[in-house]
Amino acid sequence: QVQLVESGGGLVQAGGSLRLSCAASGSIFSINAMGWYRQAPGKQRELVAAITSGGSTNYADSVKGRFTISRDNAKNTVYLQMNSLSPEDTAVYYCAASQTYNGALYVPRTETEYDSWGQGTQVTVSS
Q: Would you say 89 and 82 are in contact if contact means Cβ atoms under 8 Å apart?
């Protein structure tokens, strides 16, 4: 199994930036894609961004142009750079790993395609 540990969450003012990190360990060889989900109180968990082993990426429309997902294979770490934050971005952010393989460029988009989850890190954006 894959173990994921998030870090970098916290309190930030609107318009500010935050960088989340997710370190993976365990059965790293089985990971085909990594993604970031978020869940706000009373809201459904949603996919924010994802990146595959082949470098393909996908972003939610609400974060395009503001968030960037990247990975450092040497460190087995995926990052989420969040810029121009607004209170609407306030949520618990979860790192997830997918073992689904439908090609190196296939981007898993559904929650059921992700097999391992981190504990989550709180991101709070104040106005």
A: yes
pLDDT in tens, 111-123: 999 999 999 999 9
CA nearest to 82, candidates 28, 25, 6: 6
For 33, counting Cβ atoms within 10 Å of its Cβ (0-12 exposed, 13-18 middle, 19+ buried), the class is buried
Strands (E), 1-127: 2-7, 10-13, 18-26, 33-39, 46-52, 57-59, 67-72, 77-82, 91-98, 116-117, 121-126
Q: Hey, how many other C-beta atoms are within 10 angstroms of the C-beta on 98?
A: 25
User: 15: closest CA among 91, 81, 82?
Assistant: 82
pLDDT of residue 40: 97
